[in-house]
Amino acid sequence: MRPNFYHVVFSPIWWIAIAALATLPLWLPSYYLHIATLALIYAGLAAAWNIVGGLTGQISLAHSIFVGMGAVFASALLLQLGINLWVAAGIAAVLSGAMGAAIAWIDHRFRLGHLSFALITLAFAEMAELVVLGWDFLGGASGQSLPRDEGRFLLFQFGGSHGYFWLVMALATLALVVNLAIINAPLGYFLRAIRDNENAAQALGVGLLRNKMIAMAISAVLTSMIGTAYARYSTFIDPHLFASPVLTIEIVLFATIGGLGTAFGPIVGAILLVPLGEILRGQLGGVLPGLHYFIYGTIVVVVILALPQGIGPAIARMVRGFRGAKPVAKAAAPSAKTAAEAQGG
């Protein structure tokens, strides 16, 4: 593990930011607390997807499957079989990890290109949505309603909006720390080497299958865990939300706008765009139908054109410029030599 990981995690700024964020439920109005909770949910999902899409370069559109496993399948285990939701969430996370590893194996076995991989994962996601809509065990098209929250922690109940905010904050922080750990560990070098040039990475001895499977499994498990928390927070599990590939498109958008392949970029993208979309809808949704979507889309296009590497890297450059520090080498693009050194241990 590179010292940079410990430098970030043990930085006072890090802990001050977390402490300040944790105080939001104590003074923020309920409407804005709901927006902040949604922002953290999508921040965690975007950070989890970044492990595959940003670091490994595999544009997976199948992550709605993993969200659905954590939300729809785990809830069905509770409602249909009476399994404790903590246990159901664990089962869903394990199955999601196995499914993610299987998808990575298919990618490696058939040597899929980036476009083929994206299309195949999209097809998997579409098939999964059809399964959810047509299977009564999973609630079908009518969805599922979870029992009322009575604040019983042992039943995966967190006692209202305050508790769920802290839950999703912890999960988003976990996803961020996992990103930081991977980026600063040999696994991060291997994944970035695979992303930049698979053949060169393989020639250097990087295990393509093993590292792709590890990345997809980690990403899927994190996504499933956040999916369960999202479902419990929402109470009603709408299959058109939790099992829809559109959800993955949103996650990819947040990660891309924030900065692919960086630890903080996907978090920044979600924290900026989710509140923006919700506030525009709340303020302009009743003025002219579709106006908030038009403004939101225009802002997204402008940001992509002005900051092609994302908002996160742009902020990092501004901070370095403010401090007068010299530019550092791009962490997301290790040299082949570095990957070889990491492979050597």
UniProtKB/TrEMBL annotation:
<dbReference type="InterPro" id="IPR001851">
    <property type="entry name" value="ABC_transp_permease"/>
</dbReference>
<dbReference type="Pfam" id="PF02653">
    <property type="entry name" value="BPD_transp_2"/>
</dbReference>
<feature type="transmembrane region" description="Helical">
    <location>
        <begin position="59"/>
        <end position="79"/>
    </location>
</feature>
<feature type="transmembrane region" description="Helical">
    <location>
        <begin position="212"/>
        <end position="231"/>
    </location>
</feature>
<feature type="transmembrane region" description="Helical">
    <location>
        <begin position="85"/>
        <end position="105"/>
    </location>
</feature>
<feature type="transmembrane region" description="Helical">
    <location>
        <begin position="286"/>
        <end position="307"/>
    </location>
</feature>
<keyword id="KW-0812">Transmembrane</keyword>
<dbReference type="GO" id="GO:0005886">
    <property type="term" value="C:plasma membrane"/>
</dbReference>
<feature type="transmembrane region" description="Helical">
    <location>
        <begin position="164"/>
        <end position="191"/>
    </location>
</feature>
<feature type="transmembrane region" description="Helical">
    <location>
        <begin position="31"/>
        <end position="52"/>
    </location>
</feature>
<keyword id="KW-1133">Transmembrane helix</keyword>
<protein>
    <submittedName>
        <fullName>Branched-chain amino acid ABC transporter permease</fullName>
    </submittedName>
</protein>
<keyword id="KW-1003">Cell membrane</keyword>
<keyword id="KW-0472">Membrane</keyword>
<dbReference type="GO" id="GO:0015658">
    <property type="term" value="F:branched-chain amino acid transmembrane transporter activity"/>
</dbReference>
<feature type="transmembrane region" description="Helical">
    <location>
        <begin position="251"/>
        <end position="274"/>
    </location>
</feature>
<feature type="transmembrane region" description="Helical">
    <location>
        <begin position="5"/>
        <end position="25"/>
    </location>
</feature>
<feature type="transmembrane region" description="Helical">
    <location>
        <begin position="117"/>
        <end position="138"/>
    </location>
</feature>
<dbReference type="InterPro" id="IPR043428">
    <property type="entry name" value="LivM-like"/>
</dbReference>
